[in-house]
Write a structure and sequence with these properties.
The protein is mainly α. Helices cover 40% and strands 6% of the residues. The strands form 2 sheets. Strands 1-2 form a two-stranded antiparallel sheet. Strands 3-4 form a two-stranded parallel ribbon. α6 packs antiparallel against α8. The longest helix is centred in the C-terminal third of the chain and has 14 residues. The chain is globular and about 70 Å long.
């Protein structure tokens, strides 16, 4: 046809964000009513409405819509991008949303990267993300990052013409602890 639409079939076990969730809504409502819903302390752009929300988030009806309604991810990302250059970091084990954000960034004004990758050890992926952010001109809080991402400095040569390569493979292959990951997120978000 005249128009082509890009899409990716999702491999999911349930029909989330569709009429297939209707049977659980009634059972979900008491849990929402029991939860203490408070207004966010930072600006929140909803993927339910595609706009900035605050008070709406304190209602159980909003969260029912979050389960049932279509996700307006593109509208929400466009809303955030409209405020100016932005850094998007996908928190999760993949990069599906990062790919969508990059596709929506027609003017290449924004930075998007995935914090984790199923196929890459955490510290190695984190090193890639920090390198990418640094190359894009992001100011990073190195005093917080350096104690987190370490290598054995004693292994490095003292003479500049030693013909050997040194990589911190041992330290990059372990998993990042929650405390270390939180420190790195704080370091990136300081800018």
């Amino acid at each position: 046809g005249l128009h082509s639409v890009n899409y990716k079939r999702l491999h999911v076990a349930r029909g989330f964000h569709s009429y297939l969730m209707d049977p659980i809504l009634e059972r979900f409502m008491p849990h929402l009513n029991a939860a203490e819903l408070t207004t966010p302390v930072t600006e929140f752009v909803s993927t339910v409405t595609g706009t900035t929300e605050a008070a709406l988030l304190t209602t159980s009806g909003y969260w029912l819509r979050n389960v049932r309604d279509t996700v307006k991810f593109s509208s929400a990302v466009s809303q955030v991008m409209g405020a100016g250059p932005t850094l998007f970091i996908e928190i999760g084990p993949g990069s599906q949303l990062t790919s969508v954000i990059i596709a929506l960034d027609y003017q290449s004004r924004h930075i998007a990267c995935a914090s984790l990758d199923r196929a890459t050890p955490d510290l190695q992926q984190l090193s890639k993300v920090l390198s990418h952010l640094y190359q894009q001109g992001q100011a990073l809080n190195w005093p917080i990052i350096v104690p987190t991402v370490t290598c054995e400095l004693g292994l490095l040569p003292h003479y500049q013409f030693v013909q050997a390569e040194y990589f911190p493979e041992k330290s990059l292959k372990r998993q990042l602890s929650a405390v270390e990951f939180e420190k790195v997120l704080k370091a990136v978000s300081v800018t």
